Amino acid sequence: MTFSIAGFCRETGQFGTAISSSSICVASRCPFIAPGKGAVLTQNVTNPELGQLGVRLLEEGFDAESVLARLVEHEAHPEWRQLQVLDAEGRSALHSGAETLGIHATRQGQDCVAGGNMLADEAVVDAIVACFESHDGELAERLLAAMDAGLAAGGEMGPVFSAGLKVTDRASWPVVDLRVDWHVAPLSELRMIWDHYLPQRDAYVLRAVRPDDSPSYGVPGDER
């Protein structure tokens, strides 16, 4: 009930994920990122523990194939899980268990990996990867464009209602972590949130590392 992408930007070192689903609050349980080390997407009948374990393995220096092998070995019900792993070198690994729902597909691309289930067509995932590979701009923009391409190619068999965008940079926490937990057009809503957040993103990073040099919030009561 989900389609998603994880991507890596070699220029900035950023890792990111974008995801959408007919299920509520998809971004709360499926995308996981180890800053500077890689990303894991766990979906279909989701076990978030696999994302947590995958991040720890990436942080320990395991490559994508090794992480995936350990996740499948660890999981008691691998036939129900769909997993995509992207490591620090942009390498990827994929798993779709025998019980993955509906039309499903996974694809590896240049510095990206994508997958989906309950799709309108397998070409949805091809469109996601192709758009990411050809799109210019910063990582978040490429991820959003890729998701829009997947939706335009058919998306899920039914309507989607939630979406999320997460990007890590040099900080230990995501510099972008945006969610639409329930909306009739979640990717459009996510794009609107991103457009409002982008002009403020760097200020929020600065407030964390240099509060004495950070800009005003521009709200009543903040007189700096």
Automatic annotation (TrEMBL):
Q: Name one Pfam family in it.
A: DUF1028
> What lineage is on file?
Bacteria, Pseudomonadati, Pseudomonadota, Gammaproteobacteria, Oceanospirillales
Can you name the source organism?
A: Halomonas salina
Q: What name does UniProt use for this protein?
A: DUF1028 domain-containing protein
